[in-house]
Task: inverse folding
């Protein structure tokens, strides 16, 4: 059943909104990964692997907002010559990845 011009005119704003939301989601994810890489590089580390994982972060990271990204990372520390693993939360609580300084890192080897 083909759509007539009136139906297409009604669908256009919805399709534009859906497209804008998809572009925003892709941009924020790429921005979060860029912030993560820069944070590691500033500390003399190379990212080996990063994922958002299936099981999620430890309990102390569950108080984040939907504007933040939480990654499970594995990085090589060039200064200590070792591989480190941990959880990283990127973005501010309210403005998300618009705040590039909002990074929290929880290394596995520093847990109490």
Result:
């Amino acid at each position: 059943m083909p759509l007539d011009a009136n139906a297409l005119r009604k669908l256009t704003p919805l399709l534009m909104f859906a497209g804008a939301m998809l572009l925003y989601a892709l941009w924020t994810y790429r921005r979060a990964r860029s912030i993560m890489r820069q944070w590691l590089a500033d500390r003399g580390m190379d990212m080996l692997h990063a994922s958002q994982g299936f099981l999620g972060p430890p309990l102390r990271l569950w108080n984040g907002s939907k504007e933040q990204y939480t990654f499970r990372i594995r990085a090589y520390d060039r200064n200590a010559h070792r591989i480190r693993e941990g959880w990283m939360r990127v973005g501010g609580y309210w403005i998300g990845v618009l705040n590039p300084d909002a990074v929290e890192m929880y290394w596995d080897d520093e847990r109490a």
